[in-house]
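Note to self: the last two entries modelled the partners one at a time, which told us nothing about the interface. This time every component goes in together.
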Amino acid sequence: MLFDKVTIIGIGLIGSSLARVIMKNKLAGKLCAYDKNPEYLAEAKELGVVDEISNDLGKAVENADLVVYATPVGAYGEITRQIVPYLKKGVILTDVGSVKKYSIREIEENLPAGADIVVVPGHPVAGTEKSGPANGFDSLFEGRWYIVTPCSRSTDEAIAKVSEIWSAAKMRVDKMTPEHHDKVMAAVSHLPHLIAFSIVGTVSDLEGYEKQEIIKYSASGFRDFTRIAGSDPTMWRDVFLNNKETILELIQRFVEDLIALERNIRWNEGDKLFDLFSRTQKIRKEVIEAKQEQPEHEKRLLAEIKKLDK
Amino acid sequence: MLFDKVTIIGIGLIGSSLARVIMKNKLAGKLCAYDKNPEYLAEAKELGVVDEISNDLGKAVENADLVVYATPVGAYGEITRQIVPYLKKGVILTDVGSVKKYSIREIEENLPAGADIVVVPGHPVAGTEKSGPANGFDSLFEGRWYIVTPCSRSTDEAIAKVSEIWSAAKMRVDKMTPEHHDKVMAAVSHLPHLIAFSIVGTVSDLEGYEKQEIIKYSASGFRDFTRIAGSDPTMWRDVFLNNKETILELIQRFVEDLIALERNIRWNEGDKLFDLFSRTQKIRKEVIEAKQEQPEHEKRLLAEIKKLDK
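The predicted structure of the combined assembly is written out below.
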């Protein structure tokens, strides 16, 4: 047992998956969940992924040794203000947010200056396009990376304890500055998601097209974008607004490249197209070799398809 | 037995998968393959997916009742010019190209005016990002759509015979004009592929980033684009150059939408982001409900991952 009491705020896909890991590995004496959505809370209780639920945020964190923020990052400031009066001395606050500079600021700025509160900001780089506690599963994190991004309120001891939880979830642990984290994630995660949301919007808005025909033939490419663009709207709104500078910069670079490609097509520059596509094919091979295709996610997709096909 | 002799020109992913279907269902008395790549040809022979191979295009099509073009569409004109002297009277030419207006023109323009040659242009809307005969499999087409796009040289009888092959491959058969086909595919397939190629190029070129770090964290979104951008460079070069007008028009619409989204982020218009992402989430649900997630592809992905993980 790592902690006497753990409280997870936000029992959605990530929160409930983490809860399953904590329960399965008996990492907490008591595991409590709070969510502002009463349905999620009731579902979590029914699914048995936590010991107790509370719709009172203050009570939920009382006596907790570890509090996990697993909500969209836009809610961190308000949550912190609300829980401060109820926090135990020496408590560790940690989070799972996809942007770190902003998350850390929202938590730190709302903590009393001298308070004995430790903060371990982190990001388990895992997820699916699904939301809610019913879609969580304990192997979600398996083989993926947990990135811890220490801040001024972090201690080595607390970092080690929080990392132990993620190791139990079979994650590999990495450490970076919040700035570096946000820069890397902008490229590998935020920009790709933004592009997917954008193209799914464009294609589904095309006048002169039958929407049913678009859906019918979606398996030829469009479908893969809809998967990414099916991700949680609130979470992604908060990510884009709170890693703004880097994302705006990357959109500009992407548009420049796309316009260049458009020009290659217009002027029949087939050799340039071929060169780019050969380069991207090599990148694909590197991704495969780095084993970044994830078995668990694919297995679940398959199970889901089988259910649908019945 | 539907045909005495069938010849497949181009024994890559699609050609070899079709060959497997024809062999398994005994649809041809003899199945012959030609490919300009001697390695592909030898592989096809070794895999036993055809009865015979030939590195002489003329000889390969001699006496064939059905000739299948399964090469990048840019090669159709040259192939047609080369095979015309060897074609049997009443032969049916068919193809699997992803653009139809251009494919039909390249074939028709190179056939002698009065010749007794029937043409059934078509597109089995299926594939993976892999290339080559070793990556083909007979269930590739299962549950997907085959679109036949009749031209002036098509006959109802030939359309029915060719469609029977694809029905044996467990495809559902649909019919459209070549123009409509190219318009729909531009939206659901060509634009998404172009965007994927483009973003993988952008992200892998970013200065100030470690390429290894991009690969390491690719599972958070970028990976899904690399899959699509791992598709055959020659095939896609030919598609983009030969469905040019529609694709250029769609790129413009996409860029407009992306710039609008960029502006929403810059001006903190969170409600607009949320609205778009909620819409795209609905589209995702419609795709799932239309059963456009494909079991076979996912199963193979999984098998491949398992091999890698050993």
